[in-house]
């Protein structure tokens, strides 16, 4: 699984962590019957946190992942702190084989 | 749910986010049959990320939460990056009612 985070929102590290956790939990709950989830858990649930500089880039990556048939969870913040309600902050891609994820997110840098 | 993170390990923000997500996913998977999970999901799965300055304080908070009967997930890092293998990096407490969590973690500061 990768989680792609927008860096243009100037979120603090605690806020980022909560958003990434939200995405990861959403991805897992959406994949409970998916064999890819079991495989990912057996591997120690590897997660890589990547960054994009804008909402547009986040949308592009999410759309590319969906087009590739990968599970995608875009997180829209409730807006109680730091960012406006409804703002897309990050998205999880997976759980899925890393080779498939790399095809759509392999060029992104680590957060 | 709260996730309590050690600040003395000098983890980067991406590393912290991955550890917090690991704790949150672990907490959810351990609570699939717990009515507290359903209540927490209905509330929009609120997560608060808190900090402690040392391994000792992390252990104390985790022990206090366990003694209070709360679900606790301590995360030990696989050690591939940034910290030594087996290092306790953070712990999730919950999902559980916030009043119960506050009794053991209410004095901690936001990360």
Order of helices and strands of chain A: EHHEHEEHE
Rounded radius of gyration of chain A (Å): 13 Å
Which chains share the greatest interface? Answer: A-B, 28 and 28 residues
Largest sheet of chain A: 5 strands, mixed
- Taking pLDDT < 50 over at least 5 consecutive residues as the criterion, the unreliable ranges of chain A are none
Number of folding domains of chain A? 1
CATH homologous superfamily of chain A, by name?
Answer: Bit1
Proportion of strand residues of chain A: 15-25%
Mean pLDDT of chain A: 95
Distance between the termini of chain A: 14 Å
Number of E-state strands of chain A: 5
Bulk shape of chain A:
globular
Oligomer: homodimer
Helix content of chain A: 40-55%
Secondary-structure arrangement, i.e. CATH architecture of chain A: 3-Layer(aba) Sandwich
> How many DSSP H or I helices of chain A?
4
**SS content category of chain A:** alpha+beta
CATH class category name of chain A: Alpha Beta
């Amino acid at each position: 699984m990768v989680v792609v985070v927008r860096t243009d929102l100037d979120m603090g590290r605690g806020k980022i962590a909560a958003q990434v956790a939200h995405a990861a939990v959403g991805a897992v709950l959406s994949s409970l019957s998916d064999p890819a989830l079991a495989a990912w858990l057996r591997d120690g649930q590897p997660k890589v946190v990547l960054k994009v500089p804008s909402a547009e880039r986040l949308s592009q990556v999410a759309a590319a992942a969906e087009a590739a048939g990968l599970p995608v969870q875009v997180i829209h913040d409730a807006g109680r702190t730091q960012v406006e309600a409804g703002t897309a902050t990050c998205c999880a891609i997976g759980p899925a084989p890393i080779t498939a994820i790399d095809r759509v997110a392999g060029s992104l840098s680590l957060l």
